[in-house]
Design a protein that fits this description.
single chain, alpha+beta
Length: 111
């Protein structure tokens, strides 16, 4: 089954900034879009449904070393690329939130 792959304007702006910093990932991105058009759930893409507020979206991996995700919407044989970015930053913010906001008693041991 062949899918059409489209991009939102937001994705185009974000991708332009992202690929200025990570030019080495452009060939991998071309390969990713080709694989998405053939089968968005191919094992090598690691496509998975997101949770919470983003539960209507899917994400797939572009490169393991950068932990990059591409957020996609699949509807009527059209895959729309919504966002691209490094997952590492999300994990850092999540850690800061948990340590400094959720578990403030953690620091009482050191003071």
């Amino acid at each position: 089954m062949i899918y059409a792959v489209s991009q939102t304007e937001t994705f185009e702006r974000t991708a332009e900034k992202f690929f200025k910093k990570h030019k080495d990932l452009l060939p991998k991105f071309a390969e990713l879009t080709e694989k998405l058009s053939e089968n968005p759930f191919e094992k090598s893409l690691k496509t998975h449904k997101l949770k919470g507020e983003l539960s209507s979206y899917y994400a797939c991996s572009l490169a393991y070393d950068y932990r990059v995700i591409v957020t996609i919407v699949i509807k009527d044989k059209v895959i729309t690329l919504m966002d691209i970015g490094a997952l590492l930053l999300l994990n850092v913010f999540r850690y800061i939130f948990e340590v400094f906001i959720v578990k403030p008693r953690f620091f009482h041991r050191f003071f």
